[in-house]
Amino acid sequence: MTEPRTPRPADLCVEPAFLPPLTTRPLASPIYLSSVYACDDTVQADRILGGQEPGYVYARDGHPNAALLADRCRRLHGAGAAWVCSSGMSALSAVLLARCTPQDTVLASTRLYGKSLALLDREFSRLGGKCLTVDLHDEGAYVAALAARPKLVVLETITNPLLRVADLERIAELAHAAGAEVVVDNTFAGPTLVRPLERGADFVLESITKIMNGHSDVVLGMVAAKSADLPRLGAVISTWGLAAAPFDCWLALRGLGTLALRADESARQALAAAELLAGSPVCEAVHYPGLPGHPDHEIARRLLDGTPPTGPFPAGAMVTFTLRGGTPAAEAFIRGSDIPFCPSLADLGTTLSHPATTSHRALSPADQASQGIFGGTIRLSVGIESTTHTATRLTAGLTAIQS
Ligand SMILES: *Cc1c(COP(=O)(O)O)cnc(C)c1O
């Protein structure tokens, strides 16, 4: 058998697609879709897989797009280390699996995102762990709960849907005195409003799906740690299969480019929307931490760097309000305003959600009411449209109720 002078198409077409060496660097990052990387020899493979040499072998363990996004998240949060995961939920799973054993107790805020509570309570308990919940605005109850010696205290900086703001520094101080680590879900605030690791948290996680990416085209999460020395987190992400895909990481890095612009503008628009709604006779209540009437207004000013020193200030893109007239009023508002009804948040455009039938549907009407959620409650995620456009749509929604 002689070697053919030119390879057959069948052989040529399956040759590895190694890039030619580049003499200049692309300014926009390439997308490394490769699931696997070719090693020079066994020595190199051994050193990379053993962690003695940087490099990539298998994409579930790491790839350039995840590394680039994770490093940007690390710097955004002033963290020692950060990792990207396939979703916000997998970021919380990663912290739980890396830090807890089946003997451990976690103490969670009663106001946590529903799926997070389901993970800590229903799923973690199946592995033998225990989850207690507490109202973190009740310091006596919180101190009493810390007597159970939890391994982790899990909370959100701004909660859904009433936008309660945690007194993070105080909560962390008490947790640390009791030997617990503090895990903060910062999804609603984002790193431009608050960097929880600088306020006492040991871990911060975010659903990149929301304001970090900001374009509703990616599901992704991140976790960042104060400590630079937590090798178990990376191992957990690879072994439990929580890794993020290259294209999603690439999209999220692109979305992050405008994070500060989007976050500032949508918060400015949200304050204007909250003020408009607060002036309407059909609104029974408006919840916005930047408004002086909000129960956590002063905590928000401290935590979210509110300026000026007194009065209203932009405190994030979420505004929740309760209409007089219950669910029929909410339905009239949704139809009249023509704002998309989407049970997620932080798109470029304004969207709204109805907590009673979406995020909080698992709660009984009595439990919903005890959390301040009624048929007439709507949560707005304010986007970056002009103030007049938003005001026109809100007014159309309010008018639709009255007519
Ligand atoms: C959306 C969300 C999550 C979960 O993130 P996914 O990316 O959907 O898995 C967790 N916490 C909060 C506060 C969220 O809004």
- Write down the secondary-structure element order: HHHEHEHEHEHEEEHHHEHEHEHEH
3D shape: globular
Instruction: Identify low-pLDDT runs.
Output: none
Helical segment count: 14
What proportion of the residues form beta strands (DSSP E)?
5-15%
Q: Order of strands in the sheet with the most strands?
A: 1-7-6-5-4-2-3
Q: What hetero molecules are bound to the protein chains?
A: pyridoxal-5'-phosphate
Q: Please count the beta strands (DSSP E, at least 2 residues each).
A: 11
Query: Helix/strand-derived class?
Result: alpha/beta
| Helicity, as a percent range | 25-40%
Mean pLDDT across every amino acid position: 96
Biggest sheet character: 7 strands, mixed
Distance from first to last alpha carbon: 88 Å
- C-alpha-based Rg, rounded: 24 Å
List keywords for this structure.
binds pyridoxal-5'-phosphate, 37% helix, 403 residues, 11 strands, 13% strand, four-stranded antiparallel beta sheet, seven-stranded mixed beta sheet, single chain, alpha/beta
Short structural summary:
The chain has helices at 9-12, 42-49, 64-76, 88-99, 114-126, 139-146, 168-177, 231-239, 246-256, 259-278, 297-303, 326-337, 365-370, 387-402; strands spanning 81-85, 105-109, 130-134, 152-156, 181-185, 203-207, 221-225, 283-287, 318-323, 351-353, 377-381.
Q: What does this molecule look like?
A:
The protein is an alpha/beta fold and 403 residues long. It is 37% helix and 13% strand. The chain is built from 14 helices and 11 strands. The chain has helices at 9-12, 42-49, 64-76, 88-99, 114-126, 139-146, 168-177, 231-239, 246-256, 259-278, 297-303, 326-337, 365-370, 387-402; strands spanning 81-85, 105-109, 130-134, 152-156, 181-185, 203-207, 221-225, 283-287, 318-323, 351-353, 377-381. The strands form 2 sheets. The protein has a 7-stranded mixed beta sheet with strand order 1-7-6-5-4-2-3, sandwiched between helices. Strand 2 (105-109), helix 5 (114-126) and strand 3 form a beta-alpha-beta unit. The protein is globular and about 90 Å long. The protein starts with 8 loop residues before the first helix and ends with a helix. The structure holds pyridoxal-5'-phosphate (PLP). The site of pyridoxal-5'-phosphate has 14 residues, from helix 4.
